[in-house]
Design brief:
Elements: H1 3-26, H2 35-44, H3 46-64, H4 72-87, H5 94-120, H6 126-137, H7 142-171, H8 174-179, H9 181-186
Helix pairs in contact: 1-2, 1-3, 2-3, 2-4, 2-7, 3-4, 4-5, 5-7, 6-7
């Protein structure tokens, strides 16, 4: 473990926790709790992202409840996919960040829907549960509503996360990029 990685992971965890806490307290149908995970993967590779995601989700479960712990699998999936995006220059432009955000959102949403349904029968975070409830009142079965709400919120959420991460990476000065070879690759530099 390099000193740079030892500094990056706690900072990325703090970013995940702070944004996730605010969004959850506002009851928004989003999470935005993977910005640090995606940035860690894009800067230092998927191992840093996986570590960030696992620590973030574990800590969040300790202060917001068990409901968050099963979603550690989603954090791991996002970290791996963000590392893949970085390897393929997925943050070099707004359209590429958008495309990767949509792809990751679809895959993370499918995994989230499975966890939400099989572990919690569809009752999870405030905003997403509200969307699920609305969809059931509109005539969808509960499993359908859970799937649609998870996919919809994750598509929007991960797209925003990847757009934010891409903007941050593209704004980094050359000197900072030189310290993180993964970031150079993520931006095709």
């Amino acid at each position: 473990m390099s000193p740079r990685l030892l500094a990056l992971v706690p900072s990325a965890v703090a970013l995940n926790l702070a944004i996730g806490f605010v969004v959850n307290q506002l009851g928004l149908p989003l999470y935005l709790d993977t910005v640090g995970t995606v940035l860690a993967s894009a800067l230092a590779g998927p191992v840093a992202g996986v570590l960030t995601g696992i620590v973030s989700q574990t800590v969040r479960s300790l202060y917001e409840g068990f409901i968050w712990f099963p979603f550690v699998a989603v954090q791991v999936l996002i970290a791996i996919l963000a590392g893949l995006a970085a390897m393929r220059g997925g943050f070099r432009s707004l359209p590429r960040s958008l495309g990767w955000g949509l792809l990751v959102g679809a895959l993370a949403g499918a995994l989230s829907a499975a966890i939400s349904w099989f572990v919690f029968t569809g009752v999870t975070a405030t905003g997403v549960t509200a969307v699920t409830l609305l969809l059931t009142h509109l005539g969808l079965t509960k499993p359908q509503a859970v799937t649609v709400s998870s996919l919809g919120t994750d598509l929007l959420d991960k797209t925003i996360v990847f757009l934010l991460a891409g903007a941050v990476l593209r704004a980094l000065p050359e000197r900072a990029l030189g310290r993180y070879p993964w970031a150079r690759r993520a931006l095709c530099r």
